[in-house]
Amino acid sequence: MAMIFTPKPTPVVEIAGTDDTFPVNRIYCVGLNYRDHVVEFGSDPDEVDPVFFMKPADAIVANGVDVPYPPKTNNFHYEIELVLAIGKQAIKISADQAEDHIYGYAVGNDLTRRDLQMEMKELGMPWDTSKGFDKSATITAIHKASDIGHPKEGRIWLSVNGEIQQDSNINKMIANINQIVAKLSELYTLEPGDLIYTGTPSGIGPVIRGDIMEAGIDGIDTLINKVV
Ligand code: MN
User: Fold this and answer.
1) What are the residue boundaries of the structural domains of the chain, listed by start?
2) Distance in Å, CA 6 to ligand 1 centroid
3) How much distance in Å is there from the Cα of 182 to the middle of ligand 1?
4) What is the mean pLDDT of residues 88-110?
5) How many CB atoms lie within 10 A of CB 48?
6) Does the pLDDT of residue 226 top 90, yes or no?
7) β-strand 27-31 against 195-197: which pairing, if any?
């Protein structure tokens, strides 16, 4: 038996300091993982827990590559996030085992059609069309944990056209890195190649064509993409 067409190549992310690449399997995302963002999102941080959702692997956009303004939205938002790269299968692991399964870290932007998300939120319906669309996940190179360790704190920020819009610290996450990996490993079989976007702090807002989004996390990397 033969495949009836040639499958698309597996999306990959560069690995910093090497000529190697990280083949992407699944992209998991955490929503509502910073208290100040939960408040600006219109929810009560004492009433909601962080939520999980996914994007397709081919939503990846590399650092420096332009992002097309997506269709069917008039409110296209940035969300700066710490990204984990899974390097070893994880099934029902505990939080204190999580670091053994993390290959490295990157800086990512969970791009969002906010108008569609708010409509779906209002209806109590899934967020998929607002989150899992084409080219909705920008990302820097992955930095190996064996090079940079497992970051527990550090400034996380994003600017649009040079003006700071988001400015927080990754130590303010509600569910920390290890808890996120443990929790996801109860819901799914985490595999090498999985990426996890870990949620955004407050300051979310819109971008339009021509805007430059620049973002970073201290000790990891800086991410720049233009909206076209
Ligand atoms: Mn997000």
Assistant:
1) 12-187+194-226
2) 33
3) 19
4) 98
5) 13
6) yes
7) parallel
pLDDT of residue 136: 98
Do residues 106 and 15 touch, judged by C-beta distance below 8 A? Answer: no
Q: Please give the structure tokens belonging to residue 210.
A: 């021509």
Average pLDDT, the chain: 97
The second-level CATH assignment, the architecture, of 12-187+194-226 is Alpha-Beta Complex (3.90)
Q: What is the model's pLDDT at position 48?
A: 86
| Tokens found for residue 121 | 């939120």
% of the chain beyond a pLDDT of 90: 96
What's the gap in Å between 1 CA and the centre of ligand 1?
41
CB 144 within 8 A of CB 106: no
d(CA 21, ligand 1 centre) in Å: 24
**What are the two backbone dihedrals, phi and then psi, of residue 117, each rounded to the nearest 5 degrees?**
-65, -45
Does residue 49 come out as left (phi exceeding 0), alpha (psi in the -120 to 50 range) or beta? Answer: beta
Helical segments of the chain, H only: 35-40, 114-123, 128-131, 145-148, 177-187
Statement: residue 107 has pLDDT above 90: yes
- Residues with Cβ within 8 Å of 176's Cβ and at least 6 positions away in sequence, in order, are 95, 152
Question: Which residue has tokens 């909601």?
Answer: 48
Q: What pTM does this model have?
A: 0.98
Q: Which residues, including other chains, have CB under 8 Å from residue 191's CB and lie 6 or more apart?
A: 25, 26, 86, 89
CA of 85 to the centre of ligand 1 (A): 16
What's the gap in Å between 79 CA and the centre of ligand 1? 6
